[in-house]
Protein: Biotin transporter
Amino acid sequence: MEKQTNVRIDAQTISKIGIYFALLVISSKIAIPIPFYDYISLQTAFIFLIYPILGAKYGSWLTILYLVSGLLGLPIFASGGGLGYVFRVTFGFLIAFTLMPFFATIVRKGNTLFNHHRFLNTLISNYICLVMIHLIGFVYKCLIIKFYIGDTIKVTGLLGFTSLIDFMIDIILIFFVTLAELQIIKRLH
Structure:
């Protein structure tokens, strides 16, 4: 006899996943194209709101659903969708977004530096996760540019221009997202 496991998700959780899925798509479309095949979007900042509200389990489901839906052809990524998106330089960030709930869980449990100050503790955890996202995204960009596009000259420009600008903007956005995150959590609990 096989043991059956029932996975029950309440209507409120399904609604939250649906709403956050739609908001994730919208945040990806609010993008400014910059040179070297890159975008500055609100998507990275929005990813930081998914984990605290949905948790690691449902946050992971949401980001995986988003990634799979885009790869299946729904035009939900910053510049479209489809299986060919794997060869775009920004796809590494999408991979990192699916790992974000796990990063956040590990980092937040291990970050006890400012236990007495919730904002600083959350901000430092978010910045550590942001560094991880950008590292994965940057390594993927370099690999795609070098091995798929075949333009090694643009890797230097990429490091000096787009990645630095993108990272600096995300640092500022994550500060404000952390403020919003703490307010949202306070109102939810």
The beta strands are 31-34, 38-41. The CA atoms of residues 63 and 98 lie 5 Å apart.
